[in-house]
Write a structure and sequence with these properties.
CATH class of one domain: Alpha Beta
Number of strands: 11
Order of helices and strands: HHEHEHEHEHEEHEHEHHHHEHHEEH
Helix content: 25-40%
Strand content: 5-15%
Largest sheet: 11 strands, mixed
CATH topology of one domain: Amidase signature (AS) enzymes
């Protein structure tokens, strides 16, 4: 049996109805990985034997009535910067090529308690620093729609695995757009939750004030269910907010009457590909037909988002990555003459070029004489960006924008131009700076046949509004049902 065109929730219902077993679904997905991942390279590691054993155990609990979660028995995979006990967690880096954490991330525990079957760990830009999944120590990931193109980053492995139907859903992390941009490039759906809504315990830190774990799925309903499982307060994470888990049960009626959506005009200017612009504005018309009120407005402060983000993110990266010194764990250069040589050579050889670039940028902006000029000033601008969003949400329920200025580009096309790569985050980083939620859902295709996503941005903890609007859009359209040619059955 194949599971083409089946969502995670549909497969979960089939398992519950005894139409299929968790073991059968797991073996089917593992077969897809064997068939397709040589081309895609979405996985860093596959837990074949462990996954089958886990599926058997989960199925026994389902049969005994001990597991009733809608996702019980459904296979999934986890981005490789989220800890999995005694299983490789590499962050796509030589520095952690052999690291097996002694504990699970909170989100891993929550999903496994709900009956998730973990198939493996997914490829990513090294330490989540990148927008293309080209900087991984384990090689670039290909986009299932065209394996010569990037899947986006840093959660490129997560989006590519879902698009290639190697898994039904996946976990990613989003520091500056790392869930939303890959979802846009690969034609799948994803949610970047409000900062503090999902525990970061067990997420290997890149920029601690920006990082957030979120779901990637075939449609927004799958993503909403996963988010409801992984959300909620966690005493192990000091940034976790004390509030109930999300409940999206009332978000699927498809009615947008009374909803007001703002479109920032400065998001649609120079640098935006015409195909992307048309698809997002067409999506606005669809939302309007569904009952939403659409209005254009100006939001100029976000023009400063890119420099602000890269100053703050690099500063935090410089601090967070200082722990990788070749002493405690991870890669260590052997045959060194003294401690200083251990530090220097281990870090030089263990980190890739992009990570080293960002560590150096971060060290510079935190250095004496530059702290006030760059880091401190960026903190002030971050506050102004948050204020700008607060003012917008006094008037609008959400904001509609592109996810990325272009569709997926060729592997290697932008790798020699870091600035061009960084500008690809222009529509996403402000969301992380403000700590607010956003979703990415497919809304069209470019003239090159590559998917295009739209972004819906909401106020803090207003995920339910975003899910409602995204679901109504997906109920009305079929972009999220389209499949790459490598998936058996094509777009049927």
């Amino acid at each position: 049996m194949t599971f083409t065109n089946k969502t995670a929730l549909e497969i979960g219902q089939m398992i519950k109805n005894k139409e299929v077993s968790s073991v059968e679904v797991t073996k089917s997905m593992l077969a897809n990985i064997k068939e397709r991942d040589e081309k895609v390279n979405a996985f860093v590691s596959v837990f074949e034997d462990e996954a089958i054993k886990q599926a058997e155990e989960v199925q026994a609990k389902i049969d005994a009535g001990e597991l009733t979660s809608p996702l019980a028995g459904v296979p999934m995979a986890i981005k490789d910067n989220i800890c999995t006990k005694d299983r490789l967690t590499t962050c796509g880096s030589k520095m952690l090529h052999n690291f097996k954490p002694p504990y699970n991330a909170t989100v891993t525990d929550k999903l496994e308690s709900a009956g998730a079957v973990v198939l493996g760990k997914l490829n990513m830009d090294e330490f989540a620093m990148g927008g293309s999944t080209e900087t991984s120590y384990f090689g670039a990931t290909g986009n299932p729609w065209d394996v010569t193109r990037v899947p986006g980053g840093s959660s490129g492995g997560s989006a590519a695995a879902v698009a290639a139907e190697e898994v039904t859903y996946a976990l990613g992390s989003d520091t500056g757009g790392s869930i939303r941009q890959p979802c846009s490039f690969c034609g799948v759906s994803g949610i970047k939750p409000t900062y503090g809504a999902v525990s970061r315990y067990g997420l290997v830190a890149f920029a601690s004030s920006l990082d957030q774990i979120g779901p990637v799925g075939r449609d927004i309903k799958d993503c909403a269910e996963v988010l409801s499982v992984i959300s909620g307060h966690d005493a192990k994470d000091s940034t976790s907010v004390k509030r109930p888990v999300f409940d999206f049960s009332t978000c699927f009626d498809g009615d947008l009457k009374g909803m007001k959506i703002g479109i920032p005009t400065n998001y649609f200017g120079k640098g935006l590909d015409e195909d992307v612009k048309k698809s997002v504005l067409d999506a606005a018309e669809t939302l309007k037909k569904l009952g939403a009120e659409i209005e254009e407005f100006e939001m100029n402060i976000v023009d400063y988002a890119i420099p602000t983000y890269y100053v703050l993110a690099c500063a935090e990266a410089s601090s967070n990555l200082s722990r990788y010194d070749g002493i405690k764990y991870g890669y260590r250069k052997r045959d060194c003459e003294d401690l200083m040589e251990v530090y220097l050579t281990s870090r030089s050889e263990g980190f890739g070029m992009e990570v080293k670039r960002r560590i150096m940028l971060g060290s510079f902006v935190l250095s004496s004489g530059y702290y006030d000029a760059y880091y401190n000033k960026s903190l002030k601008v971050r506050g102004l960006i948050k204020k700008s969003f607060d003012e917008a949400f006094e008037k609008y329920d959400m904001i509609l924008s592109p996810v990325a200025p272009t569709t997926a580009y060729k592997i290697g096309e932008n790798s020699s131009d870091p600035l061009k790569m960084y500008l690809g985050d222009i529509y996403t980083v402000s969301v992380n700076l403000a700590g607010i939620p956003a979703v990415s859902v497919p809304c069209g295709f470019g003239s090159n046949g590559m998917p295009i996503g739209m972004q819906l941005i909401g106020n803090a903890f207003d995920e339910s509004k975003l899910v409602r609007a995204a679901y109504a859009f997906q109920k009305e359209t079929d972009f999220h049902t389209k499949k790459p040619e490598m998936v058996k059955g094509g777009n049927n």
